[in-house]
Amino acid sequence: MKSKRISFNDLSQYMVVISIVLVFGIFAVLNPNFLSPYSLQNLLTEISPLVLLAGGLSFIIFTGGIDLGAGAMVSATCVISGLYVSRFGNGILPVMLVIGFFLGLLNGVIVTKLKIPSFIVTLCTQNLWAFIALYFCPNGSVAVGMDFRKEIAWMTDKVFGIPIIFIVAIAAVIVLYIFQQYTSSGRSIFAVGANIRAARLAGVNTDRAQIMAFVVSGACSSLAGALYAYKQKSAVPTIGDALTLSAIASIALGGTSMAGGRGSVLRTSVGVVTITAITSGLNMMGVDPLWKDIIIGVILIVAVYLNSDTKGRDIIVK
Questions:
Q1: DSSP code, position 261
Q2: Which residues, 6 or more positions from 129, have their beta carbon under 8 angstroms from its beta carbon?
Q3: pLDDT band at 11 (very low <50, low <70, confident <90, very high)
Q4: Do the Cβ atoms of 55 and 268 come closer than 8 Å?
Q5: Which of 101, 118, 288, 318 is deepest in the core (most CB within 10 A)?
Q6: Phi/psi of residue 143, each to 5°?
Q7: Which residues sit opposite 14 in a β-bridge?
Q8: Where does the chain cross the membrane (predicted)?
């Protein structure tokens, strides 16, 4: 009888649980204050916008695509939210959802109708979103006026010790999970990522599924930008510069295949908690910020390796 060969790939289904236990355990030993109520509340506040960003971006990766401009879109919508919350009040949140819808639609239409790889399209549109952010805030961050801070202060208030911004993010994740698991559109997105040719033969409108993935990601990225404006109480044109890497690392750490067809927004959310816990723990230890990106990059490489198959399918860029 042939003995079963044990592969590192077998660890992928347990990786998200193993990683979060290790991260919290290590930092709790190195710094007991890491698990204090104050630190945990700050962690929940910090992860909330990134949960939205990574949750939406997951759907593009479910199709086997990528959005390199998600972080820049967060910067643009953070700036718009911070500058115009004085005019629209809390109505800026649905406005950002509509803007994100159309920004995602633009990406999706270009990818599907012009048949250009998503990484090229989003690499180009990334510059457009960054231009918008810097055009409105050429001199750096602009704080929300003191007269209007009371209108947005509720987002960082707490209910039974839980930040409202975290409750909003979790509610959005639940909606995304329901869309992923229980709608035909959600299932068609996975079908495209698993095998786009087979999906077409099965009658799936693959263009519509890909466009829907970009629309969901755009809406989530824009809402994440608004949440950053609420959290920071200012328009920050560079807030999203490092977020794309963190979001992709969180998605990979959550067990999503970079080739598409497999993953879950719930596991992505756990990946976000892990990545944010790592950066928060390093900050509390006074580690040079440059090391954070290096560490997250290493985590991304390991996560992609553990989630890849051994037949080379994951190297295909769709």
A1: S
A2: 69, 72, 73, 75, 76, 103
A3: low
A4: yes
A5: 118
A6: -75, 145
A7: none
A8: 12-30, 50-80, 92-110, 116-138, 159-179, 211-230, 242-260, 290-308
